[in-house]
């Protein structure tokens, strides 16, 4: 009897351990939070809300979007890096993951240590646009004029360290022309200044500038990606302009705190790959001006590493800083 009682007790104990392990693996056990380091209506915010519903269905828990805007996305990125509840992820733009460590002297997080890559949502090249009157009718003629204009040219960006600023510095470096940087507070002021003759060129998203190109108010020179983009297939690429090695795209990604268990990261990556691969989501991204990409953590890691190397070198060469 004692032996049977011992065996019974051991089985009950083992069963209890198994149930505890199963409960521990039942993740997520509460609503998931998506931190967005940008204001409501921004592209990361729109994409986070687009993913929230299908992700909620896949995980069986509510998914709530929380905006923490400021410092070009760095405030939200820092909040994500410090999240320790196991149920927080974030949608982050490329800047806080690639260029911010070199632009800011006291960044409160370390992208390569504090985050785990989950999914690349989508990417988009910028479009190089100029006033219609400044465009002589062909890319070759325009590039010749740009080289001849020297210090007369000025280009607008949405601020120091922005994609348009760093991107135009890469283009200038690759093509060998000069243009003064003039920062603005957003895309519309740049376009107003361009119409008024204060700046002669800029790099902005296709969704912002292509309606003005189609209306005949601006001329589009090229896209900033290495190859032609399905978002503006009629425009030449950087390779075609002779800017070899330049591949400037803005992109948004889903990241998790590095401390999140690997099994939970893997589940998120798997579910988001299915969601981002669906026809419905791909169509939504295209209509918003984004092309779909390989969403895998491996592809995202490679993108982060490649862009980080480019911006590290550029920022060091140009001495670009946002704070002391």
How would you sum up this structure, described in words?
The chain has 324 residues and is of the alpha/beta class. It folds into two domains: 29-124 and 250-318, D-Maltodextrin-Binding Protein, domain 2, CATH 3.40.190.150; 125-241, 3-Layer(aba) Sandwich (D-Maltodextrin-Binding Protein, domain 2), CATH 3.40.190.10. 48% of the residues lie in helices and 19% in strands. The chain contains 14 helices and nine strands. Strands 1, 2, 3, 4, 5, 6, 7, 8 and 9 form a nine-stranded mixed sheet that branches. Helix 2 (43-59) packs across helix 12 (262-277). Residues 17-24 have low confidence and may be disordered. Keywords: Receptor, Signal. It comes from Rhodoferax ferrireducens.
């Amino acid at each position: 009897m004692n032996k049977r009682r011992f065996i019974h007790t051991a089985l009950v104990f083992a069963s209890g351990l198994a149930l505890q392990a199963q409960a521990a693996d039942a993740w997520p056990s509460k609503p998931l939070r998506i931190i967005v380091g940008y204001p409501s209506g921004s592209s990361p915010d729109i994409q986070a809300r687009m993913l929230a519903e299908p992700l909620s269905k896949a995980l069986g828990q509510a998914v709530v979007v929380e905006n923490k805007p400021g410092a070009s996305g760095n405030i939200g990125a820092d909040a994500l890096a410090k999240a320790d509840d196991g149920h927080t992820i974030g949608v982050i733009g490329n800047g806080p993951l690639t260029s911010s460590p070199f632009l800011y002297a006291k960044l409160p997080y370390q992208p390569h240590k504090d985050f785990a890559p989950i999914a690349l949502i989508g990417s988009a090249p910028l479009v190089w646009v100029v006033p219609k009157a400044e465009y002589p009718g062909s890319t070759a003629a325009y590039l010749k004029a740009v080289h001849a204009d020297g210090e007369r040219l000025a280009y607008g960006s949405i601020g120091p360290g922005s994609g348009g600023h760093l991107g135009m510095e890469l283009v200038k470096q690759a093509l060998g022309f000069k243009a003064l940087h003039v920062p603005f507070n957003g895309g519309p002021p740049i376009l107003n200044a361009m119409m008024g003759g204060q700046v002669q060129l800029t790099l902005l998203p296709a969704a912002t500038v292509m309606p003005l190109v189609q209306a005949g108010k601006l001329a589009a020179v090229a896209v900033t990606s290495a190859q032609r983009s399905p978002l503006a297939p009629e425009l030449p690429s950087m390779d075609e302009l002779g800017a070899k090695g330049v591949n400037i795209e803005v992109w948004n990604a889903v990241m998790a705190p590095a401390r999140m268990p690997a099994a939970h990261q893997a589940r998120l990556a798997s579910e988001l790959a299915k969601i981002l691969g669906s026809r419905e989501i791909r169509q939504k991204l295209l209509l918003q001006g984004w092309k779909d990409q390989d969403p895998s953590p491996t592809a995202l890691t490679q993108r982060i590493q490649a862009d980080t190397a480019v911006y590290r070198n550029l920022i060091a060469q140009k001495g670009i800083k946002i704070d002391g």
